[in-house]
Specification:
Oligomer: single chain
Radius of gyration: 16 Å
Strand content: under 5%
Helix content: over 70%
Structural class: mainly alpha
Number of strands: 0
Distance between the termini: 19 Å
Largest sheet: none
C-alpha cells in the first residue's frame, strides 16, 4: 500500500524520524546562535525546531520501537551537529573523530535493519 507521496506506510515512520533527527541537530546548533537565549529570533527558531523535533519523534514512536527511535533520533542529531561544527565553526576533523562519527552512522543503519519483535 502506498501513501499520497509514494512511500509505503512502513517507511513513513522512518522518514518522520529522520526529519525529527535533522531538527534535533538544528535546535542543538541553534543554541550556539541564541547567545544564552538573549537573542529573540534565534531563540524562537531554536525553540520551534525543538518542539517540532520532539513532536515528530512522538509520531514515529507510535510505530517504531521506543529505544530504537530514540537512539536514531539522538544519533542523527549528534552526527549532524558534529558535521555542522566541523564545517561552520572549524572544529577538529581528525581521523579519530571522523572514525567515531562513522561508528555512530554504522550503528544507526544497524538499528534500522535490525529485526524487531513488533
Amino acid at each position: 500500500m502506498r501513501t499520497l507521496i509514494g512511500y509505503s506506510e512502513a517507511r513513513m515512520p522512518w522518514l518522520i524520524l529522520i526529519l525529527a533527527g535533522a531538527l534535533e541537530s538544528a535546535w542543538a546548533v541553534g543554541l550556539k546562535y541564541t547567545d544564552g537565549f538573549s537573542r529573540p529570533v534565534p531563540t524562537a527558531l531554536t525553540v520551534a525546531a525543538l518542539i517540532a523535533s520532539v513532536w515528530l519523534l512522538a509520531l514515529s514512536v507510535r510505530t517504531l520501537p521506543l529505544g530504537t527511535a530514540y537512539a536514531v533520533w539522538t544519533g542523527i542529531g549528534a552526527v549532524g551537529t558534529v558535521i555542522y561544527g566541523i564545517l561552520r565553526f572549524g572544529e577538529s576533523a581528525s581521523w579519530f573523530r571522523l572514525a567515531c562519527i562513522g561508528l555512530i552512522i554504522v550503528g544507526l543503519v544497524g538499528l534500522r535493519f535490525a529485526p524487531s519483535s513488533k
